[in-house]
Structures are given as structure tokens and as C-alpha cells.
Amino acid sequence: MQRIGVFVCWCGSNIAGTVDVKAVAEALKSEPGVVFSTEYQYMCSQAGQDLIKDAVKEHNLTGIVVCSCSPRMHEATFRKTAAAAGLNPYMVEIANIREQCSWVHKEMPLGTEKAIILGKAAVAKVNLNAPLTPGQSPVTKRALVIGGGIAGIQTALDIADAGFPVDIVEKKPTIGGKMAQLDKTFPTLDCAACILTPKMVDAAQNENIRIFSYSEVEAVKGFVGNFEVKIKKKARYVDETKCTGCGACIEKCPQKKVPNEFNLGMDNRRAIYIPFAQAVPKVATIDADYCNMLKNGKCGVCTKFCAAGAIDYKQKDEIIEEKYGAIVVATGFEPISMEKFDEFAYSQSKDVITSLEFERLTNAAGPTAGKLLRPSDGKHPHKIVFVQCVGSRCASCAEKGKEYCSKICCMYTAKHAMLTRDKYPDTDVTVFYIDVRTPGKNFDEFQRRAVEEYGVNYVKGMVGKVTPEGDKLIVRGSDLIANKQIKIDADLVVLAAAIEPDKTARPLATMLTASMDTNDFFTEAHPKLRPVESPTAGVFLSGTCQGPKDIPETVSQAGAAASKVIGLLQKDMLLGNPCVASSNQLMCNGCSSCERVCPYGAISYEDKEFPGPNRTVKVRRVATVNPAVCQGCGACTVACPSGAMDLNGFMNSQIMAEVDAICK
Amino acid sequence: MQMKEYKPLIVAFCCNWCSYAGADLAGNNRLNYPAEVKIIRVPCSCRVNPMFILRAFQRGADGVIICGCHPGDCHYTSGNYFTRRRMAALFSMLDFLGIEKERTRVEWVSAAEGAKFAATMNDFVEKVVSLGENKRLEDLRCKR
């Protein structure tokens, strides 16, 4: 049986004005467990807190009920008071008789009656309170960044600058991501490589950063502060420590017909390759699908020409196991496939290209050395049509497109149109748009410049059909403002394809138990207030894996994610919230109902031995909650069909007792 | 005459992050609502076990209302979606048992919606009062 002390606060006249505090203190005296009850003008003052401490000692109290303002105001205060008096801080309950009683009711008898009932409910709850201790877990001071695009690089640099070791895992042979493929960047038109490649070099040279390129995350175990991750380093058949990146092997490789994915298949590369000149690490990789030596053992030219002796055909995939305190997801995006969009003739004509292909065509390091030439015949196009929102904002065609706005297309299309008119003033440029969306610093000015200074023809309306005819592309669309149909015989059509999360994101989310929305973008812990944290503790989000973003936004989100990681890694110990779920394993039948509703992946199952009849031992599968991961929402407690799951601090019995006290 | 003295007993479950704070805000702004409403704080609306609601009706409650964060704003990401589904099922079962739908309600109240909290409570109590006393599930053995 508890020995409970009740402390009723006047809050000056705030409470005492509408609640007869003396009557409340008196009425609660006779409640079960209550051994002491008093009232005071200001319970939260030093004198009031001393009164509580003295009463704890004098009456040997085991529980405290404070009838006062909202627990959101002073629960922490009175918990500290209890701790100072030698009580467990979680043996305190607050009856909210100010915000939810004296301030909303005008008549004294009504207010007093309600205050007594709220006090009784709090007493009933404290009677069932048990001391709670927050769990502690150590923090591994190393971060993992998954994805080596601009988001991942910036996050890693910021974490490394704060003095913590970071590993970047990148599935491609080089870091750099999509930004490395871009030509110029809006709205300032500085070249992407000029601003990105120094950052790539910084990352490579930073002694706190390790880069695992051509690697993938294979498995993730553990929880915030204590993740155990398996990273698969794929065999690249070149010894990274020996290769100098001289390129002699590439020049001599006889297998010349490999589609170059860096240029989106618009030209070819060799079977041994370095994706682009500024790649980091600048190490060759052998494409096992095309290498003659690896396929049928006949070749070996690269070995002969490699002065460093770095070629190693026997290299195997390697598994690296490492511990991390925090994980940042920066898996980025892909443009959606255009194959389902038959109306734009993407698969029928080489001269219908996506915007990312256009980036490569205008990039000085691209397949045409920066000259804008038609992929089909290498001629200069004189009429170009840009089509925006291809697959974006596509609520009616959800089976092939996306419902959301891809956010970056309006700006890069304006950039493409502007750059085309700048380099080739004799080119006619038409942009079909639904809306022009340019909310960003200097963005709208940029788009207006494209129209006003560069004379780009913007047409409000969608393109209905593109038909290849001879060497022309007949574009039929509507002009909604002039209210007429338009026909343009274009030389080149550029589709602003919607962007979607990278395909690796979903299996990764499963490994991390991080949640995703219906479009496979990672969900943030709170859309407004915690935008860079995943609901899963210790997992952070950076860049377009969370939603479409441009480069400035990605970089600022990367910095924000890094600062959250730094905040976590600088702690030696993590103090948990003790109000977490716990399962009574004797009652648990291992049905998995709780696991399915847990948004945090805090619940796992273990096979445990239980005594059976006649001194036998039975092994049963039972749920166990990781208190470091559980956030204490209680969804599992209701889902549990056997009543095994309960929530500390808000136990079934406690809430039931409150209901009973109120409904007496 | 008896009708005039009738005071309903209303149990309100409020989630800690949105609706309980909304109720506090109603207090801060001195927005009155009937004293018959008694609030129980839960971490999330999804913590409300249907057992609690059955118990309240068993013990003579005239109405039970659950308040949580707006859809999409749940502090725990998805808790209020569970609440919505669970309570839809429970409330239609209660309706079948004779506890009218007007006696049960799920309402989304954010921490900024003090006025909505007070208005919701006023409206809810008014509806419950118009239905009169609820005796349908009450367990007479529980009466003191």
C-alpha cells in the first residue's frame, strides 16, 4: 500500500478563486492510500517545494499527488522535488485543476466538485504507480552516411568537421551522385562540377571520413547509439590501394561497346572504366558483365598495361562489419521511366530525351563535348520543345506517373531553355507548362529572365502527342490561354520527367525500420518540427530521399541532419524515457500484432524457455521491447490480444483506475 | 423536474501532445465548457484501449470522447490512424448495443485549437444531454 501525500495549490487566486482548495484537501484525505493532505498558496515556489520535501520525510510518503496547474507546466518541477526528497520522480502525479478546471468553470461548487474528482483520479493512479528508472545505453561515436551524392557528402563533411568519424557508403564506383551529371546549376548558372568536385576531394582527404564506394548496406541491427551494420564491398577487380587512376588500362581495353550509364547510355565506355574524370576515388572498376576475362577467361590486356599491378581478377565481394551511433539516409532520387509515356514517343525516337539526358548533351564532359546535337543524326536542332510535368502532378494517371510535384523541373527547364538560347540564339525554344512554380530565392527572377531576356516561348498547356515524321517530331498541344490547338514540328523534344526515390530506398527502409510514405519517400519524425529525423531514433534524413528538393535545399537539410547527428554523438550515454512499453512474457502468445503496429521497430521476438507441466521446459516465441527504441505511444498495448503488452506510466490498470475514479 | 437536475458524466481522453495541450489552451484563454467533462491524459490517442471506454460506460458514463492530433500530425507518426479505425469499429458495435453514436466521438484537436476544444466539448455535452441519461451498459453491481 502506498503512503500518498496530497498537495493542493491555490495558485494565488487562479485556482482558489473558483475552487475551494481547503475542501479539496479535506475531501482527498479519506481516499485510499492518502496519509497526508494539505494546501498552500504557491506549491511551485521554493517554500511550496520545501513543504512537499518535509512532508515526504515526516510522513514517510511513497507517492505524491499535486493538484495544481497542467502537468505540461510543472510536472518536471515536482518530479525534481520528489527526487530531491529521495522519492522516485515517477511517483508523482498531477491533477490539472487550473487549466482544465478553475479557468474554464465559473461557479465555485462546480469547480470544487470537479477538482475533487480529478484529485481522486490522480490518487487512484498513484496508488498503482511503480518507481521507474530510465534506461541508459552508450553511444558509438561514429556515423554512417548511406549515399554519396551532394546530400551525403555535405552531411559527412559537417559531421567530420565536428570531429566525429564518418563512413560514406556509395553503391556506384564514385561519389558525386546526380549532381556530378549536371551541367550548370540554377539560379546562378555556376557549373555543377566546379562546385561539387572540390567537395568530393575534401571528403576523400578528410581524415575523419572513410568512403566505401561500389558498396551497399547489407544488414542493419541494433538501435540508436548502437547500430551494427554489414556493408558489402562489391568486387571491382582492381586493388583500390594500388590503382593510381592513370587510365592506361581503359585505353587498351578491347571491349568498347558498353553503354555508358554516366551519360545515360548516349555513348559507350570500356569494360574497365572510371565513370568520369574527377571521380572519387579515382580508381578503375571492371564491369563483370562485359569483361572478356571474367566472362570466359580470354583477354587480360589490362593486367599487361597496369604499371601498378592493381588488376585482380580473383577479387571477391567483401563484408565489412562496423558499429555506428547514428545513420543518415541520403539515397537520393531517380527520374521515372518514360517507357509508359507512349504519347511522347520516347521509345520511338532518339530525339525525344529526358532533361537529365539534356544535361549530359550540354555538358562539356558529355558525349557531344557540350555541343547541343540531336542524338539521332548529330545535327544541330533548330526547334526545341520542352514538356514540363511529365509524370508529375499526375493524379489521373497514377499508374504511370506520380501525384506529387517534383519541384525542381520548372527551374531546370527554365535553365535549359535559357542556356540553349544563350549558346544558340537561332534556336526556337518552346516550353509547355501547367503552372510555373518558382518559389525560391532569385528563382522567379530567373524564370522571368528566360522569358523576357532570352525570348523563350512559354505556353500554358499540355502536350497531347508527339509523332515522329521523317526527321521531325510533330508536337501537338494546347495553348490554354489563347484557347487553341498548337502544332510544332520540332527537332528535339525534352521531357521533364518526374523524380522518384531511388529503388534501393525501400529495402533499406525495411532494414532500418524507418517509415516511408506511399511514394517511397522517407517520412520525417514531424513534418514541421523534426524534418531531418526519421521517426526511428538514430536515423536521420538528408536530401531527396525525404522528398523532391533542389541543391540549396538539399545542402541545408544535409547540414541540419549533420547537426542532429553531432548532437547525438557528443553524448556518452543516452538516457531513455522510462515510460515505454513492456511485455509480460508469461502472457504473450507471440502473435506479432504488436510488432505490426509499432512505428519504431522497437519490438522483436525471442525464443524463451518457460516451465511446462511435469518439470518439462517449453520454448515459446515471445515479444520483447527495446526500451531504447520505444517512444511510448502505446499503440501495441491496444493491439495486443492477450493483454501482455503494457505501457509504463500509463498502465492499463492505472487508466482503468482513473476511469473508475471519475465515474464513481 | 428530474430532467433539470440531470448532469451528464463525460470522460474525455486527450493525447498528451495535441489535444491535452489544446485543452490547456482553452483554459489559458478562459473558454468555458461544462464541468461535467473530465479529462484523462494519455500519451497518444492510440493508447485508448476499447476496454477503457466500455468500463466508463459500465460505470455510468453518459458520453466518451477521444481527442488526438490531426491526421498526419501525430507525434508518433501513425497513432491517430489506429485510433480512427479502432474507434469506428467500436462505436458502431456500441451503437448496435444501444449506445447511440452521439455518445461517442473521436475529434482531432491540435495544441493551437483551444477554441475548438471548448466548442467541441460544449457541442458534445449538449448532444449527450439531449439524449438523456445512459443506463444501457451500466453494471448495477458497480454502483456504490
Task: For the structure shown, list the relevant keywords.
heterodimer; A: 664 residues; alpha/beta; Rossmann fold; FAD/NAD(P)-binding domain; 5-stranded parallel sheet; 34 strands; B: Rossmann fold; 4-stranded parallel sheet; 5 helices
List strands and helices in order, with pairings.
The complex is a heterodimer of chains A (664) and B (144).
Chain A lengths: L3 E6 L11 H9 L4 E7 L5 H14 L3 E6 L2 H14 L7 E5 L1 H5 L5 H19 L9 E3 L4 E4 L3 H12 L4 E4 L14 E2 L4 E2 H14 L3 E4 L2 E9 L2 E8 L14 H5 L5 E2 L8 E2 L2 E2 L11 E2 L5 H5 L4 H5 L12 E7 L1 E4 L3 E3 L16 E3 H8 L20 E8 L18 H15 L4 E6 L9 H10 L4 E4 L2 E7 L2 E8 L4 E7 L1 E6 L1 E3 L3 H8 L26 E3 L9 H19 L3 E3 L5 E3 L9 H5 L5 E9 L5 E9 L9 H5 L5 E3 L4 H11 L2
Parallel strand pairs in A: 1-2, 1-3, 3-4, 6-7, 6-18, 7-10, 18-29, 20-27, 21-22, 21-27, 22-23
Antiparallel strand pairs in A: 5-30, 8-9, 11-12, 12-17, 13-14, 15-16, 19-28, 24-25, 25-26, 31-34, 32-33
Chain B lengths: L1 H4 L4 E6 L3 H10 L8 E6 L7 H9 L4 E6 L10 H18 L7 E5 L5 H18 L13
Parallel strand pairs in B: 1-2, 1-3, 3-4
Helix pairs in contact in B: 2-5
Report on the architecture of this protein.
With 664 residues, chain A is an alpha/beta fold. Chain A has five domains: 4-126, Rossmann fold, CATH 3.40.50; 143-233 and 322-332 and 502-569, FAD/NAD(P)-binding domain (3-Layer(bba) Sandwich); 248-305, no CATH class; 336-498, FAD/NAD(P)-binding domain (3-Layer(bba) Sandwich), CATH 3.50.50; 581-648, Alpha-Beta Plaits (2-Layer Sandwich). Chain A contains 18 helices and 34 strands. In chain A, strand 3, helix 3 (71-84) and strand 4 form a beta-alpha-beta unit. In chain A, 50% of the residues are buried. Chain B has 144 residues and is of the alpha/beta class. Chain B has one domain (9-128): 3-Layer(aba) Sandwich (Rossmann fold). Chain B has a four-stranded parallel beta sheet, with helices on both faces. In chain B, helix 2 (19-28) packs across helix 5. The radius of gyration of chain B is 15 Å and the shape is globular. The model of chain B has no long low-confidence stretch (mean pLDDT 91).
